[in-house]
Amino acid sequence: MTKQIHLAAHFPGVNNTTVWSDPASGSQIDFASFRKLAETAERGTFDFFFLAEGLRLREVKGRIHDLDVVGRPESLTVLSALAAVTTHLGLAATVNSTFNEPYELAKRLATLDHVSGGRAAWNVVTSWDAFTGENFRRGGYLDKSDRYVRAQESLRIVRKLWDSWTGDDLVLDQASGSFAREGAGAFADAGPHFDIRGRFGLPPSPQGRPVIIQAGDSDEGREFAAAGADVIFSRHGTFAAGQTFYKDVKSRLAKYGRSDESLKIMPAVTVVVADTDAEAIEKAAYIREQQVSGPTALVLAELLWGRDLSAYDPDGPLPAEDPVVGSSVTQGRVGYNDPFPIVAEWRAQAEANGWSLRQTVINQQNRQTFVGSPTTVAEAVNRHVQENAADGFVLVPHLTPGGLDDFVDRVIPLLREYGVFRSEYSGTTLRDHLGLSR
Ligand SMILES: Cc1cc2nc3c(=O)[nH]c(=O)nc-3n(C[C@H](O)[C@H](O)[C@H](O)COP(=O)(O)O)c2cc1C
After folding, report:
1. I want to staple 191 with a disulfide (CB 3.0 to 4.6 A). Which of 95, 153, 185, 209 is the partner?
2. Strand pairing of 178-180 and 170-173?
Protein backbone atom coordinates (compact mmCIF):
# COMPACT_ATOMS: atom_id res chain seq x y z
CA MET A 1 0.00 0.00 0.00
CA THR A 2 1.28 3.48 -0.79
CA LYS A 3 2.12 5.32 2.40
CA GLN A 4 1.13 8.93 2.87
CA ILE A 5 4.00 11.23 3.83
CA HIS A 6 3.96 13.34 7.02
CA LEU A 7 5.77 16.65 7.05
CA ALA A 8 6.63 19.22 9.69
CA ALA A 9 8.46 22.55 9.59
CA HIS A 10 11.17 23.26 12.14
CA PHE A 11 11.75 26.91 12.97
CA PRO A 12 15.55 27.20 12.86
CA GLY A 13 17.29 27.64 16.19
CA VAL A 14 20.55 26.53 17.73
CA ASN A 15 23.03 24.24 15.96
CA ASN A 16 24.94 25.28 12.93
CA THR A 17 22.26 24.33 10.40
CA THR A 18 20.87 27.85 10.80
CA VAL A 19 22.86 30.55 9.04
CA TRP A 20 21.53 33.56 10.93
CA SER A 21 24.33 35.74 9.59
CA ASP A 22 23.25 35.23 5.96
CA PRO A 23 21.92 38.55 4.55
CA ALA A 24 18.78 36.65 3.43
CA SER A 25 18.09 35.60 7.03
CA GLY A 26 15.41 37.53 8.92
CA SER A 27 14.82 37.97 12.64
CA GLN A 28 14.93 34.86 14.81
CA ILE A 29 12.77 36.59 17.43
CA ASP A 30 10.13 38.81 15.76
CA PHE A 31 6.72 37.19 15.63
CA ALA A 32 6.57 38.11 11.93
CA SER A 33 9.26 35.47 11.23
CA PHE A 34 7.39 32.70 13.06
CA ARG A 35 4.20 33.71 11.29
CA LYS A 36 5.79 33.73 7.83
CA LEU A 37 7.29 30.24 8.23
CA ALA A 38 4.08 28.86 9.73
CA GLU A 39 2.04 30.32 6.89
CA THR A 40 4.39 28.71 4.37
CA ALA A 41 4.00 25.36 6.16
CA GLU A 42 0.23 25.70 6.17
CA ARG A 43 0.21 26.65 2.49
CA GLY A 44 2.12 23.40 1.98
CA THR A 45 -0.54 21.52 4.05
CA PHE A 46 2.16 20.34 6.48
CA ASP A 47 1.13 18.31 9.52
CA PHE A 48 2.76 20.60 12.06
CA PHE A 49 5.09 23.44 12.96
CA PHE A 50 7.85 22.53 15.42
CA LEU A 51 9.73 24.58 17.99
CA ALA A 52 12.79 23.22 19.83
CA GLU A 53 13.84 24.38 23.29
CA GLY A 54 17.07 25.28 25.07
CA LEU A 55 16.87 26.09 28.76
CA ARG A 56 20.32 27.59 29.13
CA LEU A 57 22.49 29.47 26.68
CA ARG A 58 25.32 27.31 25.47
CA GLU A 59 28.83 28.21 26.52
CA VAL A 60 32.25 27.53 25.12
CA LYS A 61 35.05 27.97 27.65
CA GLY A 62 32.72 29.88 29.95
CA ARG A 63 31.53 32.39 27.34
CA ILE A 64 28.18 32.49 25.51
CA HIS A 65 28.33 30.53 22.29
CA ASP A 66 26.94 33.17 19.95
CA LEU A 67 27.90 31.52 16.67
CA ASP A 68 24.42 29.94 16.91
CA VAL A 69 21.16 31.78 17.52
CA VAL A 70 21.04 33.17 21.06
CA GLY A 71 17.87 34.48 22.72
CA ARG A 72 14.85 32.50 21.61
CA PRO A 73 11.28 33.24 22.73
CA GLU A 74 9.33 30.69 24.80
CA SER A 75 7.62 28.10 22.59
CA LEU A 76 4.10 27.76 24.02
CA THR A 77 3.63 31.53 23.97
CA VAL A 78 4.72 31.76 20.34
CA LEU A 79 2.57 28.77 19.35
CA SER A 80 -0.49 30.26 21.07
CA ALA A 81 -0.04 33.40 19.00
CA LEU A 82 0.37 31.29 15.86
CA ALA A 83 -2.88 29.48 16.68
CA ALA A 84 -4.70 32.74 15.97
CA VAL A 85 -3.20 33.25 12.51
CA THR A 86 -3.35 29.64 11.23
CA THR A 87 -6.32 27.30 10.92
CA HIS A 88 -5.13 23.71 10.40
CA LEU A 89 -1.41 23.53 11.09
CA GLY A 90 -0.41 21.45 14.13
CA LEU A 91 1.64 23.31 16.75
CA ALA A 92 4.37 21.32 18.48
CA ALA A 93 6.25 22.62 21.53
CA THR A 94 9.42 21.06 22.91
CA VAL A 95 9.15 21.20 26.69
CA ASN A 96 11.47 19.57 29.20
CA SER A 97 10.07 16.96 31.61
CA THR A 98 12.89 17.33 34.15
CA PHE A 99 12.48 21.00 35.02
CA ASN A 100 8.68 21.25 34.83
CA GLU A 101 5.83 19.99 37.02
CA PRO A 102 3.18 17.70 35.46
CA TYR A 103 0.27 19.91 36.54
CA GLU A 104 1.85 22.93 34.90
CA LEU A 105 2.67 20.95 31.75
CA ALA A 106 -0.82 19.49 31.48
CA LYS A 107 -2.43 22.89 31.87
CA ARG A 108 -0.21 24.76 29.41
CA LEU A 109 -0.51 22.09 26.72
CA ALA A 110 -4.26 21.66 27.18
CA THR A 111 -4.59 25.44 26.92
CA LEU A 112 -2.74 25.40 23.59
CA ASP A 113 -5.06 22.61 22.46
CA HIS A 114 -8.08 24.72 23.44
CA VAL A 115 -6.93 27.96 21.81
CA SER A 116 -5.89 26.15 18.62
CA GLY A 117 -8.99 23.99 18.26
CA GLY A 118 -7.09 20.71 18.72
CA ARG A 119 -3.68 21.27 17.16
CA ALA A 120 -1.26 20.96 20.11
CA ALA A 121 1.68 18.58 20.50
CA TRP A 122 4.25 18.13 23.27
CA ASN A 123 7.78 17.08 22.34
CA VAL A 124 8.98 15.53 25.59
CA VAL A 125 12.70 16.13 26.09
CA THR A 126 14.67 15.02 29.11
CA SER A 127 17.83 17.13 29.25
CA TRP A 128 18.85 16.77 32.86
CA ASP A 129 22.41 18.14 33.10
CA ALA A 130 23.61 20.16 36.08
CA PHE A 131 24.69 23.04 33.84
CA THR A 132 21.08 23.51 32.68
CA GLY A 133 19.77 22.76 36.17
CA GLU A 134 21.57 25.75 37.68
CA ASN A 135 18.85 27.96 36.18
CA PHE A 136 16.18 26.21 38.27
CA ARG A 137 15.00 26.06 41.84
CA ARG A 138 16.28 22.58 42.51
CA GLY A 139 19.46 23.00 40.49
CA GLY A 140 21.05 20.03 38.74
CA TYR A 141 19.35 17.56 41.01
CA LEU A 142 18.51 14.67 38.69
CA ASP A 143 20.78 11.76 37.98
CA LYS A 144 21.06 10.89 34.29
CA SER A 145 19.71 7.40 34.97
CA ASP A 146 16.49 8.97 36.34
CA ARG A 147 15.66 11.18 33.36
CA TYR A 148 13.21 8.73 31.80
CA VAL A 149 11.85 7.60 35.17
CA ARG A 150 10.75 11.18 35.72
CA ALA A 151 9.64 11.58 32.08
CA GLN A 152 7.48 8.42 32.29
CA GLU A 153 5.92 9.55 35.52
CA SER A 154 5.34 13.08 34.17
CA LEU A 155 3.68 11.76 31.03
CA ARG A 156 1.51 9.31 32.98
CA ILE A 157 0.30 12.08 35.30
CA VAL A 158 -0.19 14.60 32.49
CA ARG A 159 -2.41 12.05 30.74
CA LYS A 160 -4.26 11.37 33.96
CA LEU A 161 -4.97 15.08 34.31
CA TRP A 162 -6.14 15.38 30.72
CA ASP A 163 -8.44 12.40 31.33
CA SER A 164 -9.68 13.67 34.69
CA TRP A 165 -12.78 15.33 33.26
CA THR A 166 -15.35 12.98 31.74
CA GLY A 167 -17.59 13.96 28.83
CA ASP A 168 -20.51 15.16 30.97
CA ASP A 169 -18.53 16.90 33.74
CA LEU A 170 -19.11 20.27 32.13
CA VAL A 171 -22.78 20.89 32.92
CA LEU A 172 -23.11 24.55 31.83
CA ASP A 173 -26.74 24.76 32.92
CA GLN A 174 -27.49 28.48 33.08
CA ALA A 175 -31.00 27.89 34.43
CA SER A 176 -29.85 25.97 37.49
CA GLY A 177 -26.58 27.82 37.80
CA SER A 178 -24.58 24.60 37.68
CA PHE A 179 -21.31 24.99 35.81
CA ALA A 180 -19.52 21.70 36.41
CA ARG A 181 -20.37 18.37 38.00
CA GLU A 182 -19.04 17.76 41.51
CA GLY A 183 -15.96 15.56 41.13
CA ALA A 184 -14.80 17.12 37.86
CA GLY A 185 -11.03 17.01 37.43
CA ALA A 186 -10.32 15.08 40.64
CA PHE A 187 -6.96 13.31 40.59
CA ALA A 188 -4.35 11.74 42.83
CA ASP A 189 -1.01 10.19 41.94
CA ALA A 190 2.10 9.07 43.76
CA GLY A 191 5.41 7.78 42.43
CA PRO A 192 9.16 8.24 42.95
CA HIS A 193 9.08 11.85 41.72
CA PHE A 194 5.59 13.18 42.48
CA ASP A 195 2.96 12.81 45.15
CA ILE A 196 0.10 15.08 44.13
CA ARG A 197 -3.67 15.24 44.39
CA GLY A 198 -6.29 17.85 43.64
CA ARG A 199 -8.42 18.93 40.72
CA PHE A 200 -7.33 19.65 37.21
CA GLY A 201 -8.51 23.09 36.20
CA LEU A 202 -9.45 22.64 32.55
CA PRO A 203 -12.26 20.71 30.82
CA PRO A 204 -11.17 18.27 28.07
CA SER A 205 -9.47 19.95 25.14
CA PRO A 206 -10.48 19.25 21.53
CA GLN A 207 -7.93 16.43 21.10
CA GLY A 208 -8.47 15.14 24.62
CA ARG A 209 -4.86 14.18 24.59
CA PRO A 210 -2.50 16.49 22.71
CA VAL A 211 -0.05 14.59 20.47
CA ILE A 212 3.10 13.28 22.22
CA ILE A 213 6.44 13.55 20.43
CA GLN A 214 9.74 12.14 21.73
CA ALA A 215 13.27 13.18 20.81
CA GLY A 216 15.87 11.10 22.62
CA ASP A 217 18.09 8.48 21.07
CA SER A 218 19.21 6.14 23.84
CA ASP A 219 17.76 2.70 24.44
CA GLU A 220 15.65 4.13 27.29
CA GLY A 221 14.51 6.96 25.02
CA ARG A 222 13.37 4.54 22.33
CA GLU A 223 11.55 2.43 24.90
CA PHE A 224 9.84 5.53 26.31
CA ALA A 225 8.70 6.43 22.78
CA ALA A 226 7.50 2.90 22.02
CA ALA A 227 5.48 2.84 25.24
CA GLY A 228 3.77 6.15 24.92
CA ALA A 229 4.68 8.57 22.10
CA ASP A 230 2.73 9.27 18.91
CA VAL A 231 5.70 10.63 16.95
CA ILE A 232 9.50 10.30 17.22
CA PHE A 233 11.63 13.22 16.12
CA SER A 234 14.88 11.43 15.24
CA ARG A 235 18.27 12.43 13.94
CA HIS A 236 18.51 9.41 11.58
CA GLY A 237 17.72 11.10 8.28
CA THR A 238 19.92 9.10 5.93
CA PHE A 239 18.43 6.10 4.14
CA ALA A 240 20.41 3.28 5.78
CA ALA A 241 20.45 4.77 9.30
CA GLY A 242 16.77 5.64 8.92
CA GLN A 243 15.82 2.07 8.02
CA THR A 244 17.81 0.65 10.94
CA PHE A 245 16.25 3.08 13.41
CA TYR A 246 12.76 2.55 11.97
CA LYS A 247 12.99 -1.22 12.30
CA ASP A 248 14.39 -1.00 15.81
CA VAL A 249 11.71 1.31 17.15
CA LYS A 250 8.75 -0.31 15.37
CA SER A 251 9.84 -3.73 16.65
CA ARG A 252 9.44 -2.43 20.23
CA LEU A 253 5.74 -1.57 19.77
CA ALA A 254 4.15 -5.03 19.95
CA LYS A 255 5.00 -5.57 23.61
CA TYR A 256 2.99 -2.43 24.44
CA GLY A 257 0.05 -3.72 22.38
CA ARG A 258 0.58 -1.04 19.76
CA SER A 259 0.42 -1.17 15.94
CA ASP A 260 3.19 0.10 13.65
CA GLU A 261 0.93 2.92 12.44
CA SER A 262 0.42 4.29 15.95
CA LEU A 263 3.95 5.74 16.10
CA LYS A 264 5.20 7.97 13.29
CA ILE A 265 8.94 8.32 12.79
CA MET A 266 9.99 11.71 11.50
CA PRO A 267 13.73 12.42 11.22
CA ALA A 268 15.11 15.95 11.02
CA VAL A 269 16.39 16.64 7.50
CA THR A 270 17.56 19.51 5.34
CA VAL A 271 16.65 20.10 1.72
CA VAL A 272 18.46 22.03 -1.02
CA VAL A 273 16.43 22.49 -4.23
CA ALA A 274 17.54 24.12 -7.50
CA ASP A 275 16.63 23.88 -11.20
CA THR A 276 19.08 21.04 -11.85
CA ASP A 277 20.91 18.49 -9.73
CA ALA A 278 24.25 20.12 -10.58
CA GLU A 279 23.05 23.55 -9.45
CA ALA A 280 21.64 22.10 -6.25
CA ILE A 281 24.95 20.38 -5.45
CA GLU A 282 26.78 23.67 -5.96
CA LYS A 283 24.26 25.54 -3.81
CA ALA A 284 24.54 22.89 -1.08
CA ALA A 285 28.34 23.24 -1.02
CA TYR A 286 27.97 27.01 -0.62
CA ILE A 287 25.50 26.55 2.24
CA ARG A 288 27.87 24.09 3.97
CA GLU A 289 30.65 26.70 3.78
CA GLN A 290 28.33 29.17 5.50
CA GLN A 291 27.19 26.63 8.10
CA VAL A 292 30.76 25.80 9.09
CA SER A 293 32.67 29.07 9.32
CA GLY A 294 36.25 28.92 10.64
CA PRO A 295 35.19 29.72 14.25
CA THR A 296 32.34 27.17 14.05
CA ALA A 297 34.75 24.49 12.80
CA LEU A 298 37.01 25.14 15.80
CA VAL A 299 34.10 24.93 18.28
CA LEU A 300 32.87 21.67 16.75
CA ALA A 301 36.39 20.29 16.93
CA GLU A 302 36.69 21.44 20.57
CA LEU A 303 33.46 19.54 21.33
CA LEU A 304 35.07 16.39 19.92
CA TRP A 305 38.57 16.88 21.33
CA GLY A 306 37.36 18.24 24.70
CA ARG A 307 40.22 20.77 24.57
CA ASP A 308 40.80 24.44 23.91
CA LEU A 309 41.88 24.53 20.26
CA SER A 310 41.84 28.31 19.79
CA ALA A 311 45.53 28.31 18.86
CA TYR A 312 44.73 26.25 15.77
CA ASP A 313 44.07 27.60 12.30
CA PRO A 314 40.80 26.07 11.01
CA ASP A 315 42.28 26.12 7.51
CA GLY A 316 45.34 24.19 8.71
CA PRO A 317 45.79 20.55 9.77
CA LEU A 318 43.89 18.68 12.48
CA PRO A 319 45.08 19.00 16.12
CA ALA A 320 47.86 16.57 16.97
CA GLU A 321 46.81 16.03 20.63
CA ASP A 322 44.65 13.18 21.92
CA PRO A 323 41.05 13.98 22.86
CA VAL A 324 40.01 14.40 26.51
CA VAL A 325 37.01 12.35 27.69
CA GLY A 326 34.31 14.03 29.80
CA SER A 327 35.61 17.59 29.55
CA SER A 328 33.34 20.63 29.91
CA VAL A 329 34.98 22.91 27.35
CA THR A 330 31.56 23.17 25.68
CA GLN A 331 28.51 23.36 27.96
CA GLY A 332 24.88 22.74 26.99
CA ARG A 333 25.58 20.44 24.05
CA VAL A 334 25.67 16.67 23.95
CA GLY A 335 29.33 15.58 23.99
CA TYR A 336 31.05 12.42 22.78
CA ASN A 337 31.24 9.42 25.12
CA ASP A 338 34.14 7.90 23.20
CA PRO A 339 35.86 10.49 20.96
CA PHE A 340 38.92 8.35 20.10
CA PRO A 341 37.53 6.36 17.13
CA ILE A 342 35.92 9.50 15.71
CA VAL A 343 39.15 11.48 15.91
CA ALA A 344 40.96 8.55 14.25
CA GLU A 345 38.37 8.53 11.45
CA TRP A 346 38.68 12.31 10.97
CA ARG A 347 42.47 12.03 10.78
CA ALA A 348 42.32 9.19 8.24
CA GLN A 349 39.88 11.09 6.04
CA ALA A 350 41.81 14.36 6.28
CA GLU A 351 45.02 12.61 5.29
CA ALA A 352 43.46 10.65 2.43
CA ASN A 353 41.79 13.74 0.95
CA GLY A 354 44.23 16.50 1.92
CA TRP A 355 41.53 18.25 3.96
CA SER A 356 42.04 21.09 6.42
CA LEU A 357 40.35 20.99 9.82
CA ARG A 358 37.43 23.03 8.49
CA GLN A 359 37.05 20.89 5.36
CA THR A 360 37.10 17.79 7.56
CA VAL A 361 34.29 19.13 9.76
CA ILE A 362 32.30 20.11 6.66
CA ASN A 363 32.64 16.65 5.17
CA GLN A 364 32.37 14.57 8.33
CA GLN A 365 29.29 16.34 9.68
CA ASN A 366 27.39 16.80 6.45
CA ARG A 367 23.78 17.56 7.26
CA GLN A 368 22.36 17.93 3.79
CA THR A 369 19.92 15.11 3.32
CA PHE A 370 18.02 15.88 0.15
CA VAL A 371 19.87 17.81 -2.58
CA GLY A 372 18.74 18.12 -6.19
CA SER A 373 16.14 19.25 -8.68
CA PRO A 374 12.52 19.24 -7.50
CA THR A 375 12.02 15.81 -9.10
CA THR A 376 15.16 14.34 -7.54
CA VAL A 377 14.17 15.60 -4.10
CA ALA A 378 10.52 14.51 -4.39
CA GLU A 379 11.52 11.01 -5.53
CA ALA A 380 14.08 10.65 -2.73
CA VAL A 381 11.68 11.86 -0.04
CA ASN A 382 9.05 9.43 -1.30
CA ARG A 383 11.49 6.52 -1.50
CA HIS A 384 12.58 7.03 2.11
CA VAL A 385 8.98 6.85 3.23
CA GLN A 386 7.80 3.99 0.99
CA GLU A 387 10.86 1.89 1.92
CA ASN A 388 10.46 2.48 5.65
CA ALA A 389 13.40 4.73 6.39
CA ALA A 390 10.81 7.17 7.84
CA ASP A 391 7.08 7.97 7.97
CA GLY A 392 7.85 11.56 7.07
CA PHE A 393 10.24 14.35 7.93
CA VAL A 394 10.78 17.42 10.03
CA LEU A 395 12.31 19.88 7.58
CA VAL A 396 14.99 22.12 9.08
CA PRO A 397 15.62 25.11 6.81
CA HIS A 398 18.96 26.93 6.98
CA LEU A 399 17.25 30.31 6.58
CA THR A 400 14.57 32.10 8.59
CA PRO A 401 11.81 32.55 7.54
CA GLY A 402 12.02 31.91 3.76
CA GLY A 403 13.96 28.64 3.91
CA LEU A 404 11.04 26.35 3.02
CA ASP A 405 9.66 28.36 0.10
CA ASP A 406 11.44 26.26 -2.55
CA PHE A 407 10.28 22.99 -1.03
CA VAL A 408 6.67 24.11 -0.71
CA ASP A 409 6.50 25.72 -4.15
CA ARG A 410 8.44 23.13 -6.13
CA VAL A 411 8.53 19.77 -4.31
CA ILE A 412 5.11 19.59 -2.63
CA PRO A 413 3.23 19.79 -5.99
CA LEU A 414 5.17 16.71 -7.18
CA LEU A 415 4.42 14.75 -3.99
CA ARG A 416 0.76 15.62 -4.52
CA GLU A 417 0.96 14.42 -8.12
CA TYR A 418 2.43 11.11 -6.93
CA GLY A 419 -0.60 10.76 -4.62
CA VAL A 420 1.56 10.53 -1.47
CA PHE A 421 0.78 13.88 0.13
CA ARG A 422 -2.47 15.72 0.80
CA SER A 423 -3.65 18.64 -1.36
CA GLU A 424 -5.90 19.88 1.41
CA TYR A 425 -6.49 19.06 5.04
CA SER A 426 -9.19 16.45 5.51
CA GLY A 427 -9.52 16.90 9.28
CA THR A 428 -9.21 19.68 11.79
CA THR A 429 -6.96 18.29 14.53
CA LEU A 430 -3.28 17.32 14.48
CA ARG A 431 -4.31 13.74 15.30
CA ASP A 432 -6.41 13.82 12.12
CA HIS A 433 -3.41 14.97 10.03
CA LEU A 434 -1.19 12.26 11.50
CA GLY A 435 -3.86 9.56 11.16
CA LEU A 436 -3.73 8.83 14.89
CA SER A 437 -6.52 7.78 17.15
CA ARG A 438 -6.70 9.03 20.74
C1 LIG B 1 16.44 15.02 17.11
C2 LIG B 1 16.59 15.47 18.54
C3 LIG B 1 16.15 16.73 18.92
C4 LIG B 1 16.28 17.18 20.22
N5 LIG B 1 15.84 18.43 20.57
C6 LIG B 1 15.98 18.87 21.85
C7 LIG B 1 15.54 20.17 22.24
O8 LIG B 1 15.02 20.93 21.44
N9 LIG B 1 15.73 20.55 23.52
C10 LIG B 1 16.30 19.74 24.46
O11 LIG B 1 16.44 20.14 25.61
N12 LIG B 1 16.73 18.50 24.11
C13 LIG B 1 16.59 18.06 22.84
N14 LIG B 1 17.00 16.80 22.49
C15 LIG B 1 17.70 16.04 23.51
C16 LIG B 1 16.94 14.92 24.07
O17 LIG B 1 15.91 15.24 24.90
C18 LIG B 1 18.07 14.21 24.77
O19 LIG B 1 18.58 13.34 23.89
C20 LIG B 1 17.72 13.70 26.08
O21 LIG B 1 17.92 14.72 26.93
C22 LIG B 1 18.52 12.54 26.55
O23 LIG B 1 17.92 11.42 26.13
P24 LIG B 1 18.66 10.30 25.35
O25 LIG B 1 19.82 9.93 26.21
O26 LIG B 1 17.62 9.27 25.21
O27 LIG B 1 19.12 10.81 24.01
C28 LIG B 1 16.87 16.34 21.19
C29 LIG B 1 17.29 15.05 20.81
C30 LIG B 1 17.15 14.61 19.52
C31 LIG B 1 17.60 13.22 19.17
Report:
1. 153
2. antiparallel
116 lines ligand 1 (CB under 6 A): no
DSSP 8-state symbol, 224: H
pLDDT tens profile 281-298? 999 999 999 999 999 999
Q: How far apart are the first and last CA of the chain?
A: 24
Cα of 215 vs centre of ligand 1, distance in Å, is 5
Residue 10: what pLDDT?
Answer: 98
Q: Kindly state if the Cβ of 247 falls inside 6 Å of ligand 1.
A: no
* Dist. CA 249–CA 390, nearest whole Å: 11
pLDDT for residue 325: 87
Q: Looking at residue 32, what DSSP letter applies?
A: H
* Run of H or E residues at 107: helix 102-116
For ligand 1, is residue 27 a contact (CB within 6 Å)?
no
Residue-level length of the chain: 438
pLDDT of residue 82: 98
Kindly report the pTM of this predicted structure.
0.96
Low-confidence ranges of the chain (pLDDT < 50): none
DSSP character for 319? P
> pLDDT at position 438, please?
77
CA–centroid distance, 126 to ligand 1, in Å, is 7
Of all protein residues, whose CA lies closest to atom 23 belonging to ligand 1?
216
Please give the C-alpha separations between residue 173 and each of 120, 177, 183, 388, in angstroms, as whole numbers. Answer: 29, 6, 16, 51
Mutation pick for ligand 1 pocket among 74, 125, 222, 223 (CB with most ligand atoms within 8 Å): 125
What atom of ligand 1 comes closest to residue 221's alpha carbon?
A: 26
Q: What is residue 61's predicted lDDT score, i.e. its pLDDT?
A: 87
**Ligand 1 lined by 148 (C-beta under 6 Å):** no
Backbone angles phi, psi at 271, to 5 degrees: -135, 135
